[in-house]
Amino acid sequence: MVERVKAIADIELKSIEPYHQDFLRNLQICTNLVVLILILKGLWGLLVAYHC
Asked: Containing H/E element for 7?
């Protein structure tokens, strides 16, 4: 099953890939929320929110 919501409360504490952590750090992003928007045919879109 597809994970529909991914939340990272603190990129420094979460175990994520080093390149992803470096990318977020370079953009001065501290937290990250991604929500998949699904319809019957599949992925319709993404809702993404960041806290810098």
From this structure: strand 5-8
In contact, 25 and 11? CB cutoff 8 Å:
yes
For the chain, the residue count is 52
> pLDDT tens digits for 7-52?
999 999 988 899 999 999 999 999 999 999 999 999 999 999 999 8
Strands 31-39 and 5-8: antiparallel
> How many Å apart are CA 52 and CA 47, to the nearest integer?
17
Query: How large is the C-alpha radius of gyration of the chain?
Result: 13
